[in-house]
Amino acid sequence: MPRAKLDIALPDGIWIADVSTEFPETRFRVLAALPSEDTGVGLLEIDGPNLADVLRAMDRHEGVTELELLERASESVLVQFTTTEPLLLLSVRDAGMPLELPVEIRDGRATLEAVAPHAQLSMLKTQLEQFGMRFEVVYLYESADSERLLTERQREVLTAAVERGYYDTPRRCTLTELADGLGAAKSTVSETLHRAEERVIKRFARTLPQVAVDGESGEAPRGETRAGE
Is 0.90 topped by the overall pTM? Predict the structure, then answer.
């Protein structure tokens, strides 16, 4: 099943575009949303500076018909709102897709992730364009690919390497420390990482224009029995 991540430029004039652009350092996270025929009700987490000003801007915008403060913390608030401009929600609904939450909005741009068949993603593109929303595709891939790409052991070692900071700059975990944590020989962990990195990099390279990758099917061989994998 294809998984896509979209970076969407919200059109001027709708409340979330106007308010988030007025307060570019503020993060808006839609935690829940329910569309009706012409309106939408949402649960919104807002964090950043000047929260009182942000709430006043929301309350006075004609696109927000109801606003209720549910929780307040030092740098965040939780509000329920009703809007006559649920463009993202309507776009996803009319494309026949569930809305994958949370949806994050900053400075007039929304980040939307979706898992759906290609036909529904194409319909979502059409719906966004009809509402005047320009977007960029951050990534698009088959969500099952990551399961087939690596063996179980390769996924385990690669995940541990990422979580422990082996790939950080500067590195927070050495190969020796990683091997000790996994209870495996350093040479075995090194070879397993190398094979995992090869497959991941070649799969990524296949998505780039004018890059030919030989000898890489993108799937982990069935019944592979190499030591450490």
Answer: no
